[in-house]
Amino acid sequence: MTDLDGVKSGEYDVVVIGAGPVGENVADRARAAGLSTAVIESELIGGECSYWACMPSKALLRPVVARADARRVAGLSDAVQGPLDVDAVLAHRDYETSHWKDDGQVGWLESIGADIYRGKGRLTGVRQVSVTGADGTERHLTARHAVAVCTGSRAVVPSLPGIADVRPWTSREATSAKEVPGRLVVVGGGVVGVEMATVWQGLGAEVTMVVRGGQLLPRMEPFAGELVAEALTEAGARILTGVSTTAVSRAGHDGPVTVELDDGERLEADEILFATGRAPRTDDLGLDTVGLEPGSWLTVDDSCRVDGSDWLYAVGDVNHRALLTHQGKYQARIAGAAIAARAQGTPPMETDPWGAHAATADHAAVPQVVFTDPEAASVGLTLAEAEAAGHRVRAVDHDLAAVAGSGLYAKGYKGRARMVVDLDRRILLGVTFVGPGIGELLHSATIAVAGEVPVERLWHAVPAYPTISEVWLRLLESFRG
Ligand SMILES: Cc1cc2nc3c(=O)[nH]c(=O)nc-3n(C[C@H](O)[C@H](O)[C@H](O)COP(=O)(O)OP(=O)(O)OC[C@H]3O[C@@H](n4cnc5c(N)ncnc54)[C@H](O)[C@@H]3O)c2cc1C
Ligand SMILES: NC(=O)c1ccc[n+]([C@@H]2O[C@H](COP(=O)([O-])OP(=O)(O)OC[C@H]3O[C@@H](n4cnc5c(N)ncnc54)[C@H](O)[C@@H]3O)[C@@H](O)[C@H]2O)c1
């Protein structure tokens, strides 16, 4: 790591605030272009994704989902009826998070030649950034070309009566807990809610989900939430929809939590998780010093440059375009290339849609896999979104169970697929798959959507027999009539 006193000048071509997956990738692209780069991090290099989000959650989900899959395989089912080895699952989660130590990622950042500053970064004016270390010491950095804000997001907990006293779980506690609570209430039916309900129910907790809307996973096609709810219920979870939490309290310091609902029901639990969305980490970032609103999401153009600025970039969760690691890393590749091109005046900027300096996929082809049992995966627009955007579309659905590959994958396979076809351009605007083992199918759909492959040409993309991918053939047959 850079010895701060050893830095001759606090001037860099690029200053990156926040070393999550996105900040790391902006730094990587900037360094690859030969730009000197400082990276400021106030917690762990690797960010939320590595320590309290993607990595621990997927490490926890994998055994739960693998067991559910195995229980549907003839000849194997009887061997996997028992409980999971909780200690081993948690130990594997700890391994995947490197025991919440960032040495490996520090080594990587150093290897690309970026200078690391530990502390809280704040804007103090145009291209000016201060770094406040844990001991209160302050450093000042100047960016010759660009400052990239990559500070991510944090969990939002609603301000309910009694909330502070119950010490609620957020995604951080839900992904790093050291033991399984006996009873867990999960508030929120979005992605974090369903994935964490799946984990803790699978590890032995009695889970109750409190969902204020009418369905789970409201941003996906309705059948995604329906199939995930059905499986969670079969696994023993209780799902309450159309209800809101009105107050919470905890008996004593470590006693049970009481949750009051607006339909009059009271729930008792050992822990309560609020999986109720995210807020940008911009409240203490000095945004006011550059004419921006503290605490706001940062609105950017397709090169990830903040509206109205020629030097400030906001990349990843903090720009609220798509709160996903892979999409933030895509933005980082685009923003890094744009920063380098603008700094060096060459090559010419390519900001037209799908150009080298335009994160066009953010609008057209954002893929997401929800790692529940069944998995739910989508890219692009849902039918409702496509219609609301004014496209003339047709949705084609197919029962995933009616494909030879799914019957072989699991006994009693349940799943569904939908493609949304733009009838004017004859390309796909969106695709959704829900079913066991479909996560790896999604990239085929992403290529079709991002590549704007005509349905007539997709007909020539032959899926191997007998894979679940043959659902493509069935969807296209239905479309062609
Ligand atoms: C439970 C959970 C599971 C998830 N699972 C997935 C998944 O499976 N796949 C997926 O694609 N996405 C997933 N996500 C979303 C994913 O975690 C985020 O999209 C991703 O972490 C965003 O990366 P980022 O670099 O923008 O921000 P972050 O990962 O939040 O990193 C931001 C970094 O900036 C630092 N920072 C903040 N403010 C300052 C400051 N002032 N000075 C210095 N440093 C600062 C923070 O400490 C942090 O290290 C999940 C999210 C959650 C909550
Ligand atoms: N596998 C993955 O790709 C993955 C996994 C986890 C998280 N993520 C990302 O992280 C982000 C955050 O996930 P999330 O689930 O926290 O947010 P979310 O926005 O997906 O879901 C939050 C849900 O909580 C509900 N809600 C909000 N306030 C509420 C309240 N006061 N009471 C009850 N319900 C309330 C919302 O209506 C919404 O349905 C998502 O955008 C997602 O893309 C991705």
From TrEMBL:
NAD as UniProt keyword: yes
SUPFAM superfamilies documented for this protein: FAD/NAD(P)-binding domain, FAD/NAD-linked reductases, dimerisation (C-terminal) domain
Domain annotation FAD/NAD(P)-binding: ranges: 12-329
Listed transmembrane segments: none
Cofactor field: FAD
Cystine residue pairs: 49-54
Residues that coordinate or bind NAD(+): 188-195, 277
MF terms in GO: dihydrolipoyl dehydrogenase (NADH) activity; flavin adenine dinucleotide binding
Keyword Nucleotide-binding (UniProt): yes
Domain Pyridine nucleotide-disulphide oxidoreductase dimerisation residues, every copy: 366-472
One Gene Ontology term from the biological process aspect of the record: 2-oxoglutarate metabolic process
Residues that coordinate or bind FAD: 58, 121, 151-153, 317
Keywords: FAD, Flavoprotein, NAD, Nucleotide-binding
Cofactor binding note of this UniProt entry: Binds 1 FAD per subunit.
Family label: Belongs to the class-I pyridine nucleotide-disulfide oxidoreductase family.
Record-linked PANTHER family: DIHYDROLIPOYL DEHYDROGENASE, MITOCHONDRIAL, DISULFIDE OXIDOREDUCTASE
Protein name: FAD-dependent pyridine nucleotide-disulfide oxidoreductase
Organism listed in the record: Streptomyces pratensis (strain ATCC 33331 / IAF-45CD)
